[in-house]
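Table S4 entry, Major facilitator superfamily (MFS) profile domain-containing protein.
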Amino acid sequence: MKNGKYTVNSEDVEGSLACCGSTNNRMPQYLAAATVTIGGFSLGNVLGWSSPAIPNLTNSGDFPDIQNYQKAWIGSLVTIGALVGACCSGFLIEKIGRKKSLIVVGIPYITGWLTIALASQIYMLYIGRFLTGFSVGALSLVAPVYLCEISQSDIRGFLGAIFQVTVTVGILFTFVIGSMTSWQLLSATCGIFPLIFTIFSSLLPESPRYLIAKGRSEAALKALSWLRASDSTNPSKDVLEELDEIQGTIQHGKELQLKYLDLISLPILKPILITLGLMFFNQFCGSNAVGFYTVTIFEEADLGMDAHLSSIIVGVVQVVATALASAFVDKAGRRILLLLSFTIMCISLLALGTFFHLKNASYGQFLLESTHWIPLASVMAFNAAYCGGVGCLIWTVMSELLPNHVIGFASGLATTFNWTLAFVTTRFFQDLNDSLGIHNTFFLFAGACSAAVLFIYVFVPETKGKTLDTIQKENFQHKGSRSAEDIASVASSTTNLV
């Protein structure tokens, strides 16, 4: 079968892939995204667990000699596991594929939660948090790449945002269950969802881009036909044209072998640096520090209401904010939402830092009573802005900016960088509070948010409604320079540089 440049090769197709018809050519994409979002829910469980569980650990008496530094390690070991997971996933998505990588991610999830639920020693909590963190880091790379590659350009931002919605729902779930049950039951409950995710992931089609890169054109045709609700035996013109575009991009990349010097060429270096910049501000805005220690922050603020209830209110707000953002991300655009998100976060952190400054300086009981609402309002606004902007867009933008032939190496580098910074901000959050004062810590994060606004305004392009190939041509290729497709081999060769 031929259509323009595209030719279907006679190769075996994965038995797990089945065609299904639909009157709506987007429905299969929604179904695939729904499966991936179960993993996002589990990701949220991991990120939200420490907020209710660490105070419960302290109050339960199960670990009567637990020290503050041990609590810090319980909270931050997730980020070390995520760092390792990010390193491995950049290699895995090219060696075994996007689909199989999703399945592999579920195994440490399940094992980690079981280890935490059965923990009788501190080291078991450490191991469990590391394992669940490994899956968080791996999934934070694999899921955006998979969703980006299977989706049409006009709904790509929406599907990425929906993934983040389920992350916030997962966080809220742990806040609610953690306020009512023991840390053991919370952990056991969280372990159910990765099992469901792993089973459903085995039913997904592989990414058509990955299949073409591996020379499996017939499998790519069937995968894309399923995703576009088209008959693979008589594919639509749109499906064949899309395959032509994908195959043309990847074929050019196969003609040359990637060299180290190619990584400093503008078409590759520029999107990598932009991505690393976004990851830097994603962590130094204080998102994980505030999220991991929400209950602790409210306990220190002495709001006069239950700290768990306050965290649940915050969780509800961030779910609503993320859901609203998902409805507008493909209309408003990524760039404007990122700018608005960091601006609101900066204002919220300034307000939060000001409150703790007043509290620590003892400016009088009346003044504190008149501003007691500031911590809850500030954390609500911060989380709403983060989840409605940065949190639901940064991974999508990463997958859109990075050229297909370097996405394995570059996304692994970016995700590893992200989780390295996450470890720094979470592990030393309490140390910063002790040395600088909690108010100055929040002022420091606010400064990072203001710098992020300037960075996005100057460097980050708009990617709304554009195909992945168009994004590369418009923003990173210049007349007289080698095109992104002509610089290197496909991503399978780039993983050798990791």
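The chain has two domains: 25-204+256-497, 210-253.
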